[in-house]
């Protein structure tokens, strides 16, 4: 029997939207979580929480200005995150912890306004942050105990 994976596909077009998605598994099964997120617009707020089970994957592409993303992936070590942000003043805050595996790839491209990243990882601690900026790139903070 195939193990279940819980999928969420989101497409947001427009400004000033708020999305909160939570995928949690408190049982001992090995079911996984998957979120595919696409945002076209400005001043959007996205909050993602994935916890428990093994696979926790988020793929997000954001195009627009002043967008905020908060991601928490915790428990059982199946963390993977891929974020691509195009625009000015975007912010990504990511926490990955619990049962070892961490993996984050974050790509930021802006045309003037700074884009910021805060990444906290405890476990396997693998990350790649790539920035392309025409002027100020913004703050990048990585914390790994």
Give a nutshell description of this structure.
This protein is mostly beta strands and 145 residues long.
Structural class: mainly beta
| Sheet of most strands | 6 strands, parallel
Mean pLDDT, to the nearest integer, reads 88
Kindly state the percentage of residues in helix: under 10%
Whole-angstrom Rg = 15 Å
Discrete helix count: 0
**Strand-residue proportion:** over 45%
What is the overall silhouette? globular
Low-confidence stretches: none
Please write the string of helix (H) and strand (E) elements: EEEEEEEEEEEE
- What's the total count of β strands? 12
End-to-end distance: 38 Å
In the sheet with the most strands, the strands line up as: 1-3-5-7-9-11
Structure description:
- It is built from no helices and 12 strands.
- With 145 residues, it is mostly beta strands.
- The strands form 2 sheets. The chain has a 6-stranded parallel sheet with strand order 1-3-5-7-9-11, with no helix packed on it. Strands 2-4-6-8-10-12 form a 6-stranded parallel sheet, with no helix packed on it.
- The radius of gyration is 15 Å and the shape is globular.
């Amino acid at each position: 029997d195939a193990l279940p994976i819980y999928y969420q596909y989101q497409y947001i077009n427009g400004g000033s939207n708020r999305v909160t998605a939570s995928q949690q598994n408190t049982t001992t099964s090995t079911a996984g979580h998957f979120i595919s997120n696409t945002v076209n617009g400005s001043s959007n707020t996205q909050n993602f929480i994935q916890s428990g089970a093994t696979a926790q994957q988020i793929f997000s592409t954001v195009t627009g200005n002043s967008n905020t993303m908060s991601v928490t992936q915790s428990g059982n070590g199946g963390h993977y995150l891929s974020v691509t942000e195009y625009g000015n003043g975007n912010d990504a805050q990511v926490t990955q912890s619990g049962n070892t595996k961490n993996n984050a790839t974050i790509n930021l491209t802006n045309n003037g306004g700074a884009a910021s990243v805060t990444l906290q990882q405890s476990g396997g601690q693998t990350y790649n942050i790539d920035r392309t900026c025409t002027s100020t790139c913004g703050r990048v903070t990585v914390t790994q105990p």
